[in-house]
Amino acid sequence: MKKSILEQKITYKALGFMLDDSGVLIDHALENPSPELKARFKNVCAMISEPLTTRLENTLGLLRMSKREFLEAAIIEALDKADLIMEECGVDDYLEGLAAHQEAEEQARIQHAIDSSNGAA
User: Fold this and answer.
1) 74 falls within a domain
2) Which of 64, 72, 88, 103 is the most buried (most CB within 10 A)?
3) Which of these, 21, 118, 113, lies nearest to 69 by C-alpha position?
4) Residue 119 domain-assigned?
5) Are 41 and 33 in contact (CB under 8 A)?
């Protein structure tokens, strides 16, 4: 159901209150960052298709949102989803098992080297 004008305005104000324009302040500070600030941020670059770039720029223009602010939010959401999916698939358990297996193989190699050197003496 479509929201009334009043509901839309209240939603806009409520979201504006919760999601203030701190992104604008960060963008401004990153234009000429101090060494301390620069050390806390990294540049993430990716070549994307022209139609996708145009769509992104049009959307950002409508939202009056910077690329940095939009992409940071999108990356956070994507990483949260990836973490959830990997947890559901048991990736952590798999990696722990793999690490334990590799550790056991390394210990066996070390023990074999010790046994070989004791036999040669």
Assistant:
1) no
2) 72
3) 21
4) no
5) yes
Local confidence pLDDT in tens for the 121 residues of the chain: 899 999 999 888 888 877 776 677 787 788 888 888 888 888 888 999 999 999 999 999 998 888 998 999 999 999 999 999 999 999 999 999 999 999 999 999 999 889 888 876 5
CB-based contacts of 38-44 (< 8 A; 24+ apart in sequence): 44/71, 44/75
- Residue range(s) defining the domain that contains residue 23: 1-41
Q: Which residues fall within 8 angstroms of residue 60, CB to CB, at 6 or more apart?
A: 66, 67, 70
Q: Is residue 10 part of a domain?
A: yes
Task: Give the pTM.
Answer: 0.63
